[in-house]
Write a structure and sequence with these properties.
With 287 residues, this protein is of the alpha/beta class. The protein has 2 domains: 2-160, 3-Layer(aba) Sandwich (Rossmann fold), CATH 3.40.50.720; 166-286, N-(1-d-carboxylethyl)-l-norvaline Dehydrogenase, domain 2, CATH 1.10.1040. It is built from 14 helices and 11 strands. The chain has helices at 10-21, 33-39, 50-56, 67-80, 96-108, 121-127, 138-149, 163-191, 196-203, 211-214, 224-238, 243-252, 257-265, 281-286, and strands at residues 2-6, 25-29, 45-46, 59-62, 87-90, 112-115, 118-119, 130-135, 152-159, 270-271, 274-275. The strands form 3 sheets. The chain has a 6-stranded parallel beta sheet with strand order 3-2-1-4-5-6, with helices on both faces. Strands 7-8-9 form a 3-stranded mixed beta sheet. The radius of gyration is 22 Å and the shape is elongated. The relative contact order is 0.09. The model has no long low-confidence stretch (mean pLDDT 95).
């Protein structure tokens, strides 16, 4: 099976590499020539453009950043005349509505389409242990399952087109809520005299442990605005009130890797623009 990758930054390059290692014939394209060169030094071959991917690939994996980029890639593939039986997979995190629109366009052109955003980020991509959350027809997902399994620990079919992105939104909700909860928890520990990093290491042994806390030192706090915009837009469209996540949306914007590093490893830290006072517990409870 011939597999095409469109977008071979850090994530896409790692995913393409795993597919090649699994025995697939993998070709890649990226608008950034440096990224393309870096991703095609091994078994992955470089192509000159989307038309080469469109006419040769049985499965195309799109690993770009934005909805507009996904639309542009799909449009370019369809305009180039895709290989018969081709299935396009959007592995980017996009809005479910975008996926539904693109699926309709692909269906009209006789091309399969699924949305399959991934969880576990760059480390998961490097290790080949992502989770692919899929929306689309069972037939299309079974066609691409061997390819997705080359870089995934599991492939989950959540429902029709768009449900993969909905599943990713649900995951992101829990992740960003955990970011806020973890920070406030460790801020209290620090304010009352317990070293925040020691408290974190202890919590990882307790029922309160969570994956976000495990990866706290490497969290980049990227895409939270985009992720929460999707969540809140979906909640409005669905008529579901999510008051907690309205707060999470505002609070997580005040956090970032610098704030986490200060909290865990420096003498002073802040939250919501205010310093976190650090005193022994005895002084706190006696005041």
């Amino acid at each position: 099976m011939q597999v095409g990758f469109v977008g071979v930054g850090a994530m896409g390059a790692a995913m393409a590499g795993h597919c090649a290692a699994a025995g697939f014939d993998v070709a890649a394209y990226d608008t950034d020539p440096d990224m393309l060169s870096a991703a095609t030094r091994g078994a992955v071959s470089a192509t000159a453009g989307l038309s080469d991917i469109a006419t040769a690939a049985d499965v195309v994996i799109c690993v770009v950043s934005t909805d507009d980029q996904s639309r542009a890639v799909v449009r370019g593939l369809l305009e180039a005349g895709p290989k018969p039986g081709q299935v396009i997979v959007v592995a980017a995190t996009n809005h479910p509505g975008t996926m539904i629109d693109l699926a309709e366009t692909c269906r009209a052109a006789g091309v399969g389409f699924i949305d399959a955003p991934v969880c576990y980020g760059l480390q998961g991509a490097k290790q080949g242990k992502l989770i692919s959350l899929c929306g689309g027809t069972a037939e299309d997902i079974e066609t691409v399952r061997p390819v997705l399994m080359a870089y995934s620990r599991s492939v989950e079919h959540l429902g029709p087109t768009g449900c993969g992105q909905l599943g990713k939104a649900c995951n992101n909700m829990m992740h960003w809520a955990a970011c806020v909860a973890n920070y406030e928890t460790l801020a209290l520990a620090k304010a009352c005299g317990i070293d925040a990093q020691s408290m974190r290491e202890t919590l990882l042994k307790c029922p309160a442990r969570n994956t976000t806390l495990e990866r706290w030192d490497t969290s980049k706090f990227t895409w939270h605005e985009k992720d929460m915009d999707v969540v809140l837009d979906l909640s409005q469209q669905a008529g579901v009130s999510l008051p907690l996540f309205g707060l999470v949306d505002q609070l997580v914007k005040r956090l970032g890797p610098d704030r986490v590093r200060e909290l865990l490893h420096e003498d002073s830290a802040e939250y919501l623009g205010l310093p976190i006072p650090v005193r022994p517990l005895e002084d706190v409870v006696k005041n």
